[in-house]
Specification:
Blueprint (H helix, E strand, L loop, with lengths): L17 H11 L4 H4 L20 E4 L4 H16 L2 H7 E9 L2 E3 L2 H5 L2 H9 L3 E12 L2 E14 L2 E16 L2 E13 L4
Parallel strand pairs: 1-4, 2-7
Antiparallel strand pairs: 2-3, 4-5, 5-6, 6-7
Helix pairs in contact: 3-4
Length: 189
Amino acid sequence: MATITNIDLLELPRMKTVSSTLLMALAACGATTAGAQTKPDPAAHAHPLQTVPAAPQMDVAAEAKPAVAVVERFGKALASGDLKTVETLLDPTVLILETGGAERSRAEYMGHHAISDAKFLKGSHQQLKRRTARAEGELAWVGTESELHASKDGKPITLLSTESMVLRKTGGDWRIVHIHWSSRPKKSK
């Protein structure tokens, strides 16, 4: 429901209906119709209340936007199992660090973890929380914080995930030269 702002108080007497006048008066006092009910009545709702996720916080410098586009393309390709695209976006000498382990080349990642990562991410949903990115010259870095809603062993899980990627521009194209992934289960409240 929209919140009414910037009310011209001179217009209030001209309103024809009581409900419109009441709504305008509440808005003029700083109240909204959403705030008028302080405690929802569970019996009044046929469906559970759903919260709208907050918009992600983005701090992406203009010169880093092309590198961010590569990071987003990489994530979508990996989640959809498009390993050919994943491979083209990685530099041959990429270094990937995760859970105390390392893959030291594109070939090593593609032959090992890429397959299991794609399988795990299939059907998952990533909710972006925050992204920061900067670029200077031939290098860019992108830091991402997100929630990952997935399934493991048939059970739903939510992971708090952080990702940092370093990209290098080669021949006009950005390629990922370093990835560091870290995640942990989200604690239930």
